[in-house]
Amino acid sequence: MTDLKKTPMPVQDPETRRKNFNEVALGYGEEEAVAEANRCLSCKNAPCVSGCPVGIPISEFIRKIKERKFDEAYEIVSSVSSLPAVCGRVCPQETQCEMQCVRGKKGEPVAIGRLERFLADRRREEKLVAPVPKNGKRVAVVGSGPSGLTCAGDLARKGYDVTVFEALHLAGGVLVYGIPEFRLPKAIVQREIDALEAFGVKIETNVVIGKTLTVDELFEQGFSAVFLGSGAGLPNFMGIEGESLNGVYSANEFLTRSNLMKAYREGSETPIMKGGKVAVVGGGNVAMDAARTALRLGAEKVFLVYRRSMEELPARKEEVEHAAEEGIEFRLLCNPVKILGYEEKSDRKFGFVRGMECVKMALGEKDASGRRRPEPVPGSEFVLDVDTVIMAIGTSPNPLLKNTTEGLATDRRGGIVVDERGLTSRKNVYAGGDAVTGAATVISAMGAGKSAAKAIDEALSKEKNR
User: Where in 194-245 does DSSP place strands (E)?
Assistant: First the structure.
């Protein structure tokens, strides 16, 4: 049967796209979207919704696509999600909504993310909505990433006067500094932000909460509640010899230089390593983004070094497939033990990377995560000839907020401690997203922002009614 598989989505040819930063996946047209929507079984209880952290009524919007009522379908999605064009591109649907899809039990699940993207892209030129009347309460949102923007959008729809404070010079958080143009065009992110601003959300950039202003000073300025969505921008390293050499980056720095500081543009003055051989350490979406970015910046060879096997690789299946098509070489069951540099002071490359010593791994018993634990194979060391090493092994929350906000409880990883509503140890201070969990997905951060917005509204409504 033809409906056992998803309707194919047009993509750039691998040989072409590996040399440019244009979007790889080109999206559905109307006929492709309707064909894919018709694969949906319109389940009565729609188990797919249980896999969506923000609770989009999936079967309802797909039913409207079947009927070619595209505007109505978009209204259903946008009434719940503040960032539909973003989610349709970067959410790990295969482990969330699509994993619950009944159609997936016999064939491939319905391409829910592709359909969401289709609706959002179709409405690119939509008239921006007017803000709702204000209710007299002001809320400060720290960080303009997915959790902050979602929280801000939901509160603005309820009449709150919302101001978002962003540390960088451009709003969007990880959506603009972390995710490459070829996966999420920045014009798409800006359009979503423009829609929120048209709805009444104010955004102040170049404001570092904890330095420019403190959380306590926000309350002194008249804000009734504060949401901390500051993300997890502190990169993790392995602690191995050679990590301080020139040519060793955190993925965070490498992607920020390329994405936010536009190092990928011809003639850009932003310094970044281009060309040569590159090793990216890690197996998540960030590792894939860094590897594919390095390739587009002119690397002659890119190795992705991951200590487990392909089955355990946590990156989205689509991103792994695209990386392989583009020529990224996967060095699986390998782990770095040392980064090697040029040691002769007379050498003009003194202090720069010349290679990475690795050890082969074998999978042993399962660990606490349920995955088989990788263990070094004695005597299997080898050297990978590389000029650049990018560490993509996770990030942690920046300690600035913890250090400048008295009474704000954090866990051993530096994540802000919250209850089920997103409330921190401080009254009327809420938090969500990577600042709480450490590096996670865009949609889970959005879910946290949505939950916190609901809790803030309930709390401030009670205060008003007293």
Answer: 202-204, 225-228, 234-235
